[in-house]
DNA sequence: CACGAAACATACGCTGTGTATGTGAATGCA
DNA sequence: TGCATTCACATACACAGCGTATGTTTCGTG
């Protein structure tokens, strides 16, 4: 089928969105390396010209997809966290939301499996600074200040916690649908145990 | 300078080794994506033909480099662990060796930064099964059986621990030489604290 | 109703991988 | 000792896929 010729100015935003949808699907199903811009374009009956009109290049397209997925996740986590009573409970609630999100293939694959390949380690690190990591770091900072976490430099603690969550994300990304619920709960259990263990037990005065 | 023509059968192994050396240096200094097989070949005054004679392709070359680096690390960790009295102390000692190894740029860059890009997530996971992860998993299994670690499924606990170590590796990979000692000790402290916290405290009977 | 300008499509070049083929030196063998 | 074979590469070629430069259609605007 030949490309459609009568795309109008008003459809611009729709085209961009359709490209993001198509790219997301391709990246999730076949991975970053195996998807061509040609593929993405023809999926919406357009050409690579359309892609390069809306995005600076292949990795920029991935970044846009990544941004969409991460922003949505970030939103959900913060939303739920705000409903909790204490910072500690906010964190626990946020983890549950996060783990649920990791059960959706699009999140797990894009963020934890493909992103390192597509963006390279440094770029990814810079991006995460704006999304998930910033939330974790802020939480750790607050909890340390409240005395609920032991006195350690915030940076390594945050990095470690961030990657602990990431471990669950990566694991769930490759778990078959049938087992995903069980594995999710296993990780939830281990993480809760871990956090409880490191939580500072204050003496009742 | 033109390629050398008089390479003899006896030099074959030397050529292979030289290619690995050159590749390692290139991958560490410029990253996987930015290094060409042409670069690697000319570094030892050969052509890409030599590379394709010894290795199946670019990613296979990286795998060989990866194997070299990981095997050496594995060896050191196990060696030191064997000297410890108890399994728990063996683990702690192994962690110290591992963190020292992470301070060497070649290890941190190859294993923690470039490997995901070069091999993709799945391939890397399969490889790690044979190296670092297997050691961690075996340790966790043993410690759980001894009752030193709480009763959790071995798989998620091992994955999480593995990635906690990985966090330190990644962090050290991008830490400037001047700060590396300090950061190393920060991570060592946090990890020790973490492990001590989750260790099962048994009642003295 | 010319006249941009947005929103693409088409055409091209270039880099780097992989592969197929060529070549000289050593080695086995009659 | 001559010749064939094989190893260890070098050379040459094909091709995929990214990026870029340029063309074309449609619509808003004066």
TrEMBL record, chains A, B:
<keyword id="KW-0805">Transcription regulation</keyword>
<dbReference type="GO" id="GO:0003700">
    <property type="term" value="F:DNA-binding transcription factor activity"/>
</dbReference>
<protein>
    <submittedName>
        <fullName>TetR family transcriptional regulator</fullName>
    </submittedName>
</protein>
<dbReference type="Pfam" id="PF21351">
    <property type="entry name" value="TetR_C_41"/>
</dbReference>
<dbReference type="InterPro" id="IPR050109">
    <property type="entry name" value="HTH-type_TetR-like_transc_reg"/>
</dbReference>
<keyword id="KW-0804">Transcription</keyword>
<dbReference type="GO" id="GO:0000976">
    <property type="term" value="F:transcription cis-regulatory region binding"/>
</dbReference>
<dbReference type="InterPro" id="IPR009057">
    <property type="entry name" value="Homeodomain-like_sf"/>
</dbReference>
<feature type="domain" description="HTH tetR-type">
    <location>
        <begin position="13"/>
        <end position="73"/>
    </location>
</feature>
<dbReference type="Pfam" id="PF00440">
    <property type="entry name" value="TetR_N"/>
</dbReference>
<keyword id="KW-0238">DNA-binding</keyword>
<feature type="DNA-binding region" description="H-T-H motif">
    <location>
        <begin position="36"/>
        <end position="55"/>
    </location>
</feature>
<dbReference type="InterPro" id="IPR001647">
    <property type="entry name" value="HTH_TetR"/>
</dbReference>
<dbReference type="InterPro" id="IPR023772">
    <property type="entry name" value="DNA-bd_HTH_TetR-type_CS"/>
</dbReference>
<dbReference type="InterPro" id="IPR049484">
    <property type="entry name" value="Rv0078-like_C"/>
</dbReference>
């Amino acid at each position: 089928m030949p490309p459609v010729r009568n795309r109008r100015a008003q459809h611009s935003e729709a085209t961009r969105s359709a490209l993001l949808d198509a790219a997301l699907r391709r990246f999730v199903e076949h991975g970053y390396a195996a998807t061509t811009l040609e593929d993405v374009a023809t999926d919406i009956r357009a050409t690579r010209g359309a892609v390069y009109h809306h995005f600076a290049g292949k990795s920029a397209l991935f970044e846009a997809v990544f941004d969409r997925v991460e922003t949505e996740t970030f939103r959900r986590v913060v939303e739920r966290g705000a409903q909790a009573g204490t910072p500690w409970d906010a964190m626990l609630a946020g983890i549950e939301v996060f783990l649920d999100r990791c059960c959706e293939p699009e999140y797990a694959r894009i963020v934890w499996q493909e992103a390192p390949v597509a963006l390279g380690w440094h770029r990814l690190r810079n991006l995460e600074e704006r999304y998930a990591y910033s939330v974790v770091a802020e939480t750790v900072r607050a909890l340390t200040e409240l005395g609920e976490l032991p006195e350690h430099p915030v940076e390594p603690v945050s990095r470690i916690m961030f990657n602990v969550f990431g471990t669950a994300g990566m694991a769930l990304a490759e778990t078959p649908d049938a087992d995903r619920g069980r594995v999710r709960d296993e990780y939830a259990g281990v993480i809760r145990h871990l956090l409880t263990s490191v939580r500072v037990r204050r003496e009742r005065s």
